[in-house]
Design goal:
Blueprint: E1 5-9, H1 15-26, H2 30-33, H3 44-50, E2 52-58, E3 61-70, E4 75-82, H4 91-105, E5 110-116, H5 120-128, E6 132-139, E7 143-151
Parallel strand pairs: 4-5
Antiparallel strand pairs: 1-2, 2-3, 3-4, 5-7, 6-7
């Protein structure tokens, strides 16, 4: 369901709304991993200055977002968050496609992302959307990060 949606770039005053949406979207993972996932505690004022955000609105309501970080040879998708009431409607896919378009426009041939290994439904989702696992990384306090990438057709 992406009819009536609009995506715009975040500005400084969006930081509180980004934090609120991200905290709501990731809250379901807290019981699984026993702590707040990294995006729930991020400094979004700094992130807006340093990264690029696509904010997806449905009928004037912030429903989802994607946070992107340009790297030397790829675009890193740092965060995809969909408000709980809008999950399962295809908004995450819409934002992944948006990030791919941003990457292509920036001259990148690849997008990358990572997720917690215990977020199995996320891993399966990204695999369905054409991403492949290229490494796993053990973090001392955050568990295992699954790093995924997707080549972009020119």
């Amino acid at each position: 369901m992406t009819d009536g949606c609009a995506i715009r770039t975040a500005i400084n005053t969006d930081a509180p709304a980004i934090l609120a949406l991200t905290r709501a979207a990731y809250a379901k993972w807290v019981p699984l991993i026993g702590r707040e996932p990294k995006p729930m505690t991020a400094d979004y004022e700094a992130a807006i200055r340093d990264h690029r955000f696509g904010l997806l609105y449905l009928e004037g309501e912030l429903a989802a977002l994607v946070e992107m970080i340009p790297q030397t040879d790829h675009l890193l998708i740092e965060n995809v968050a969909v408000a709980p009431g809008h999950q399962g409607k295809g908004l995450g896919r819409t934002l992944l496609l948006h990030a791919e378009a941003v990457a292509k426009a920036g001259g990148y041939d690849e997008v990358r992302l990572y997720t917690n290994q215990r977020f199995e439904e996320n891993v399966r989702l990204y695999l369905r959307f054409g991403y492949e696992i290229f490494r796993e990384e053990q973090h001392p306090t955050r568990g295992v990060a699954v790093h995924m990438k997707k080549p972009l057709a020119r």
